[in-house]
Design goal:
The protein has 330 residues and is mostly helical. Helix content is 58%, strand content 2%. Strand 1 and strand 2 form a beta hairpin. Helix 1 crosses helix 2 and helix 5 packs antiparallel against helix 11. The protein is elongated, with a radius of gyration of 33 Å.
Length: 330
């Protein structure tokens, strides 16, 4: 299947934003060693894609809420079919079908962004000022636009350069190998960190899934993907890493807004009087790093003076009255 339509779409969005920043007056020349019109074009490519995918993101949140609400039933099935994995899987799939919950919906926004990432990767990887003119005009590019993007830089490192660029590739881009490695290396570390934080943010708010498959997906998202970027990041052009980091920052902000507006459900513990209750809305707490507010001290009842029982009618006083003169002796 040809992916040309993706390359045309990504190129069109990228070039449209670049033209918009040019029209606004953002200089095409390097400022602080950076061609900001191209950097902003990549950043707003992210904004465009995320706005288009926002309805899918909302569906993802609703699906996660539905999956979380089913956790008590999932736990019952796990206890009922302990040791019979095949039957357990069939029962769980039937439960998901009946309740119209999709375990894979949580990954859908990420899967839909993969073609965008691949499209930008292909487009930026082609940037080479020594290409023939007929190659420069592929996917709707003009020769001048292609040459401008080929020379675009971030702090003097070309956006088409990568950590693993060969000496020949760096020479064709007119780049310094040390500078490219430093800028690309820093960006790869930032990419890994922000990728980890986006997964951590969601897990802190929703908690670890009871379903082993869901928990495995959560662990993959939290640890596997960031670690894989340490290796794969070496082949990503700097422009692609800028896209990835911007996308992660957008995700952090979007998730924070959605989680505050639609807080995740919390299931009451199975022990004690609260057992058997359904999910309830949690109080606002935590944040990105899971800090919880200290519980308010319990109010103490004001101390009251002890009540003294009144003497019964006719009873003799226990103590003599004060002020009575003592009896004389003799």
């Amino acid at each position: 299947m040809s992916l040309d339509w993706i390359y045309f779409a990504i190129s069109w969005i990228l070039l449209t934003w670049h033209s918009a920043w040019d029209a606004i007056g953002v200089s095409a020349d390097a400022v602080i060693g950076t061609n900001w019109s191209w950097i902003l074009a990549i950043i707003f490519l992210v904004v465009t894609v995320r706005v288009i995918l926002f309805p899918v993101f909302v569906k993802q949140i609703k699906s996660q809420r539905a999956m979380q609400a089913l956790q008590p039933k999932v736990k019952e099935l796990q206890e009922k079919h302990k040791g019979d994995r095949e039957t357990l899987q069939k029962e769980m799939m039937e439960l998901y079908r009946k309740e119209k919950a999709n375990p894979l919906m949580g990954c859908l926004p990420m899967f839909l962004q993969i073609p965008v990432f691949l499209g930008l990767f292909h487009v930026l990887r082609r940037l080479d000022p020594f290409k023939a003119e007929d190659k420069k005009t592929l996917y709707g590019w003009a020769v001048a636009q292609f040459d401008s993007a080929s020379h675009a830089k971030l702090f003097t490192a070309p956006i088409a350069g990568k950590f693993g660029s060969t000496a020949e590739e760096l020479a064709r881009l007119g780049a310094n190998g040390t500078t490219v490695k430093v800028i690309a290396g820093i960006l790869v570390l930032v990419m890994m960190g922000t990728t980890y934080l986006t997964s951590r943010q969601m897990i802190l708010k929703t908690g670890w899934a009871e379903d082993p498959q869901q928990r495995m997906v959560q662990r993959l998202m939290l640890y596997g993907i960031p670690l894989s970027l340490l290796v794969s990041g070496a082949i990503f052009p700097i422009g692609v890493i800028i896209y990835w980091v911007t996308n992660n920052l957008f995700t952090l902000g979007q998730q924070q807004w959605v989680l505050r507006k639609y807080p995740p459900l919390v299931t009451t513990p199975a022990k004690g009087a609260g057992a058997g209750r359904g999910p309830v809305q949690p109080a606002k707490s935590g944040g990105l790093f899971g800090r919880k507010a200290a519980p308010a001290p319990a109010k103490q009842a004001p101390a009251t003076a002890p009540k003294v029982a009144a003497p019964k009618p006719g009873a003799k006083p226990v103590n003599p009255k004060k002020g009575r003169p003592a009896k004389r002796q003799g």
